Amino acid sequence: IPMKEIKLHKLNMRLNDPFTTSFGTFQDKEFFILEAVDKDGNRGFGESVAFSSPWYSEETVKTNQHVVEDFLIPILQENTIHHPDDVSDLFSSIRRNNMAKSAIEGAVWDLYAKRKHLPLAKALGGKKTEIDVGISIGIQPTVKDLLNTIDHYAQEGYKRIKLKIKPGKDVNVLQEVRAHFPDLPIMADANSAYTLKDITHLQKLDDLNLMMIEQPLEHDDIVDHAKLQKALRTPICLDESIHSLADAKKAIQLGSCKIINIKIGRVGGLTEAKRIHDYCKEQRIDVWCGGMLEAGVGRAHNIALTTLPGFTLPGDTAGSSRYWQKDIIRPEVIVENGVITVPDKPGIGYDIDEAALKKFTVKTKTFRF
Ligand code: OSB
Ligand code: MG
Q1: Between 20 and 30 A from 122 (CA), which of 101, 142, 166, 272?
Q2: Residue 160 Cα, ligand 2 centroid: separation in angstroms?
Q3: What's the CA-to-centroid distance between 136 and ligand 2, angstroms?
């Protein structure tokens, strides 16, 4: 791929509603979009999913920018890329910093697919023309607010509802939700809010017919998750604990989870995400695509990845309007009856809304090749 330049656009966008998890609330999103431009004028886009503070993982917007500018872009400037998989091989000399790697690798995947006149989904080997999606709902001030919110999204047709939980707002809340919605596909995400001391409490979830519980224990612990899974009938899904194919293999071998949430940023890009998918499919472990409250570019990458056949459960890729007043892509991502129609245009399949990108951009830096 004959590269001309990479542009780093720093954006600020505000979520329609504050989002609350077991580690806090936030509404203003600071992040960056990477644009990879080739000598023929094709433009590929990637999104950094790191947040401003390191509560989900150790990466932040600033660490991503540092690693992208000072280590990853120089690697690309010194090497020739024939296929996006080369990017993940070259970046393996840098430890972790997966969200930083993924932002660039995503832009290169988009650029590669556009040069081949292929939708990104097809370039990855995906076959689905539509994908089923669910929605993730943050912790609400009252149970009444929660029931109203669930009702709203269930009416919109989302295929499963994920509820954030934390100690004090868990079994009691989920019991009320289940009583109001006896047949709704529901799951819970704890974002590491519990320890093994909570085993008997968490066992109460087994009566609520949850699809799964996501990351109940420490972000970096797969041994305790294996112990917990033995004590629970509800399947455990790992999110924060899985950063690579190697992590996925260990977690599956230990019995730490029955399901994996794959986030492209958390695992360092589409190439590694696909490797994890392939392995899980072979092992008959269900996977689904997680979300990081992305703007349209990241959302488009999630949609493309979800077209792979092993993504058997609805993911967190909700429609643009669930997050933003105005997204940065055209058309915006539309969810109808819990389904997104996969775009069939080359690359990520959505155009950048240049006016919106400009409106939310606070700074752009250009790195020439
Ligand atoms: O744990 O999956 C998570 C959002 C931010 C950080 C972590 C998580 C989430 C979500 C929302 O659950 C996913 C989305 O709607 O993009
Ligand atoms: Mg999660």
Answers
A1: 101
A2: 14
A3: 9
Q: Residue 367 corresponds to which tokens in the numbers above?
A: 């790195």
Task: Tell me the two tokens of residue 171.
Answer: 């079994």
The pLDDT, as a whole number, for residue 23 is: 86
Q: What single letter denotes the amino acid at residue 20?
A: T
**How big is the CA angle at 196 (ends 284 and 205), to the nearest 5 degrees?**
65
Could you tell me which residues come within 8 angstroms of residue 306 by beta carbon, excluding any fewer than 6 positions away? 126, 128, 131, 133, 288, 289, 315, 317
Closest to 133 (Cα-Cα) out of 273, 299, 260: 299
Residue-wise DSSP of 93-152: TS-S-HHHHHHHHHHHHHHHHHHTT-BHHHHHT---SEEEB-EEEPPPSSHHHHHHHHHH
Domains of the chain: 3-117+351-368 (3.30.390.10), 122-341 (3.20.20.120)
| H-run or E-run covering 66 | helix 61-67
**DSSP 3-state of 278:** helix
Per-block mean pLDDT, blocks of 10 residues, the chain (369 long):
98 96 92 98 98 96 98 98 97 97 98 98 98 97 97 97 97 98 98 98 98 98 98 98 98 98 98 98 98 98 98 98 98 98 98 98 98
Tell me if 290 CB under 6 Å of ligand 1: yes
**Ligand number nearest to the C-alpha of 241:** 2
pLDDT at res. 217:
98
Q: Which atom of ligand 1 is closest in space to residue 318's alpha carbon?
A: 15
Q: What is the pLDDT of residue 109?
A: 98
Q: Which residues contact 182 (CB under 8 A, 6 or more apart)?
A: none
Q: Is ligand 1 within 6 A of the CB of residue 193?
A: no
Task: Establish whether this prediction's ipTM goes over 0.90.
Answer: yes
Q: Which of 122, 164, 166, 274 is catalytic?
A: 164
Residue 71 has which token pair? 């280590």
Q: Determine whether 363 is an active site residue.
A: no
